[in-house]
Amino acid sequence: MLNLLSAGLSDTGKDYRSYRWFFTSEGKLVVGGKSDEQNEEVIRNFLRPDYIVMHTSLPGSPFMIMQDDNPSKKDLKETAIFTSAFSKQWKNGSKNIEIDIFKASQIYKTKGMKIGTFGIKGEKETIKVKPELVLIIQKGKIRAVPSNGKEKILVKINPGKLTKEQAAEKIAKIMRDKFHLPVHKDEIMQAIPSDKMDVN
Fold this sequence. Notes:
Blueprint lengths: L1 H5 L13 E4 L5 E4 L3 H10 L6 E5 L7 E3 L6 H13 L2 H4 L5 E7 L3 E2 L10 E2 L4 E5 L3 E6 L2 E5 L9 E8 L1 H14 L7 H7 L5 E3 L1
Antiparallel strand pairs: 1-2, 2-4, 3-4, 3-5, 5-8, 6-7, 9-10, 9-11, 11-12
């Protein structure tokens, strides 16, 4: 497993680095789509029947897949926060966001469903989380992830008013001035939410 991850591959043998991804504080890989088309790819390429999947209770988020069938409560909460950060509700400034949790085997697709949309059968667990992220270095890459209280935090990210471009510029300046890290803005853009945030 370590050899796969160090090569940028999930345990299904697929490269996760072109998607939304992070590792929980207990080392579980979480992968989600950046678009409707990527939602389809993620469901097709990263699922095993017992894996945990999350989505906001309301429409408008990626399907986030945790590559584990027996996660801890900490893993679940971190993944739920990550799911919330890339949702429409984040952009709308919601202070608390409800996240549905279910197994991969509960997902289905019918012929009439649009690209990137899926149905869920059976019972789901729902939890409510506060959407907030921290910027850290993970697997040698800049990642915006839920805080676990142990990592070296470069920047804190919350719902706000900055556009993605403005936030990336501000983060790049903080990282140059405070941490002396010459980070390219494009790398930051790959890690942070789609829009509407504050950074400090």
